[in-house]
């Protein structure tokens, strides 16, 4: 028995497909601005090889500003998603994100702000994004039937990959537009720009606006809207957050699954930072010999990683994933992911690095889709906002830690060594988890519910004991 929603609305998959497509537009816009900002840091703010420590620090701080606020906001965002209209939440977040992207774009276009002055806007973008993700992740399970859910999960896994496939080349072109205009002898406002980075942020603002406009025409169920109002009113925010924690802690196989993802996020969290650094330094002799410059070389690697993600998403969407022992669909791809990262850290060839990232990207939709299917089967839709937000917090709390350590490790050791050491730890751990009996029974719904009931009774008994 599972907790999947049994009665999706009529045309629910059509609504999901429109929602998926429109939100993919905003994800593409965000990928454009993020990629352009990395190029801006590497080529404009810290262009010299002697500035490698400063560049590593800037990349790490930027990633931290986004992920740390997103992580801290996740529990509150989950409670909000279970209490408020999810369509309205996504609409509001898209509009706020559009305003933030517009602000950054205008600052870069009209002034020359310091790197540090942009960080509060980046942090706020991460916080708003956590509310959007909570509403989005808990919405589509109410739109599609249980039979269509694996397909929907596969489509969800392709969002980031599709944006990553298109964004590097588009972002590199946008960044280069002013230089191309000057080279062609044009005397326009475009040729007067130092780079096209501000244009990428302006396009990001447009993409969020498009996503918001589409949401105004959609109807998305919100389980909280059908719950007894007195229950929602009496529950405090802290008690709702505590409920999400208890739900997971009372089901130890779910906790094991989360801790495994926490390690994956620790290992792969700073990969975007390492990718920029490896491309700029370790792979430079190879791409220079092949006639590339930095931006196209980085774009090639990012694109190949996204090609892998798209291929993986297409396969998992068509296949639907494992129907039993889905935890194997999580652990085996994680081992392959670690092997791909090990190869990436060791490589000094641009094309071999691209192949490693393609394999890396290929594994991600498989492990994420199987994990998502497990969670959707274990958590009722009306509780998913609270539980999934705590799930996200536990699984991702190591990401900011590894990003913070990345700049120091990259400054003290060769970046390739750091990447390989992290990958080796992941491979050894995941092989060990194949023999973890607790994790292997994560899909035993009855067993997990019985375990949770025993822990709940134990807590109640302890509370009733007289204190001396």
Automatic annotation (TrEMBL):
Any matching Pfam family: MFS_1
Location in the cell: Cell membrane
Keywords assigned: Cell membrane, Membrane, Plasmid, Transmembrane, Transmembrane helix
PROSITE patterns the record matches: MFS
Membrane association type: Multi-pass membrane protein
Residues covered by the Major facilitator superfamily (MFS) profile domain: 22-435
Bilayer-spanning residue ranges: 20-43, 55-79, 91-111, 117-141, 162-181, 254-274, 294-320, 327-344, 350-369, 390-411, 417-435
Principal location class: membrane
Single Gene Ontology MF annotation: transmembrane transporter activity
Superkingdom, natural source: Bacteria
Single GO cellular component term: plasma membrane
PANTHER family per the UniProt record, alphabetical: INTEGRAL MEMBRANE EFFLUX PROTEIN-RELATED, STAPHYLOFERRIN A TRANSPORTER
Name used for this protein in its record: MFS transporter
Source organism: Deinococcus psychrotolerans
């Amino acid at each position: 028995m599972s907790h999947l929603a049994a009665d999706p609305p009529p045309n629910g998959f059509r609504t999901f497909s429109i929602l998926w497509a429109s939100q993919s537009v905003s994800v593409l816009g965000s990928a454009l601005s993020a990629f352009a900002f990395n190029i801006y840091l590497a080529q404009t703010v810290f262009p010299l090889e002697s500035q490698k420590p400063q560049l590593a620090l800037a990349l790490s701080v930027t990633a931290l500003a986004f992920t740390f606020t997103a992580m801290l906001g996740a529990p509150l965002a989950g409670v909000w998603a279970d209490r408020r209209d999810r369509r309205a939440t996504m609409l509001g977040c898209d509009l706020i994100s559009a305003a933030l992207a517009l602000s950054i774009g205008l600052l870069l276009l009209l002034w020359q702000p310091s790197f540090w002055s942009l960080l509060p806007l980046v942090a706020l973008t991460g916080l708003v994004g956590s509310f959007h993700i909570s509403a989005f992740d808990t919405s589509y399970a109410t739109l599609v039937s249980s039979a269509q859910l694996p397909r929907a999960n596969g489509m969800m896994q392709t969002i980031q990959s599709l944006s990553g496939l298109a964004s590097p080349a588009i972002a590199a072109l946008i960044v280069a537009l002013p230089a191309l205009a000057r080279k062609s002898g044009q005397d326009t406002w475009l040729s007067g720009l130092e780079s096209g980075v501000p244009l990428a942020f302006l396009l990001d603002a447009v993409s969020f606006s498009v996503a918001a406009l589409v949401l105004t025409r959609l109807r998305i169920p919100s389980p909280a809207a059908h719950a007894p109002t007195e229950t929602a009113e009496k529950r405090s925010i802290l008690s709702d957050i505590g409920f999400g924690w208890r739900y997971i802690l009372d089901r130890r196989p779910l906790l094991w699954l989360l801790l495994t993802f926490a390690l994956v996020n620790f290992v792969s969290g700073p990969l975007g930072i390492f990718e920029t650094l490896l491309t700029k330094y370790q792979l430079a002799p190879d791409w220079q010999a092949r006639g590339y410059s930095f931006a196209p070389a980085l774009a090639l690697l990012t694109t190949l990683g996204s090609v892998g993600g798209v291929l993986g998403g297409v396969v998992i969407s068509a296949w639907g994933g494992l129907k039993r022992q889905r935890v194997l669909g999580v652990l085996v791809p994680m081992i392959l992911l670690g092997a791909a990262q090990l190869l990436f850290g060791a490589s000094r060839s641009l094309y071999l690095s691209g192949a490693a990232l393609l394999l890396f990207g290929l594994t991600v939709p498989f492990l994420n889709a199987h994990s998502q299917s497990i969670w959707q089967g274990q958590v009722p839709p009306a509780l998913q906002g609270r539980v999934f937000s705590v799930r996200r917090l536990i699984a991702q709390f190591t990401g900011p830690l590894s990003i913070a350590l990345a700049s120091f490790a990259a400054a003290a050791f060769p970046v390739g060594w750091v990447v390989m050491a992290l990958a080796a730890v992941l491979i050894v751990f995941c092989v060990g988890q194949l023999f973890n009996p607790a994790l292997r029974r994560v899909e035993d719904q009855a067993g997990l519910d019985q375990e949770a009931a025993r822990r709940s009774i134990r807590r109640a008994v302890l509370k009733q004991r007289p204190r001396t």
